[in-house]
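Okay, is this right?
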Amino acid sequence: MTPDPADPGIEDLIQIGAAATALGVSIDTLRRWERSGRVAFERRGNRRYLSSSELSKLLHERGAANRSSARNQFTGVVVAVKRDEVMAQIDLVCGPFRVVSLMSREAADDLGLRPGVSATAVVKSTNVIIETR
């Protein structure tokens, strides 16, 4: 049974292979983590899925020692894509961070962006203003 992309809960689920890539581990490692109780997968048919919030938690745990933005590159997993006729909004979960990118629909289609795909957000900015209140 293949999951239905129109299923309202499917965008929150990441396939085991994409989760392994985002975490920098093998699928076998994730299966061992499941057996040991470190992670819980949702099964749909013969496939294992991880919730985006669980993936975010694992990414945060694994990246806790590195508090750098790695030269303004944030690697994660696409958790949502909203397209209209011209534009697309891409939501990535990158460790404890959520990164949102707006781009042309054509660019999103060319990159094959859809929930579960690993991607890296590269941030380029001439000004960053930080305020506290």
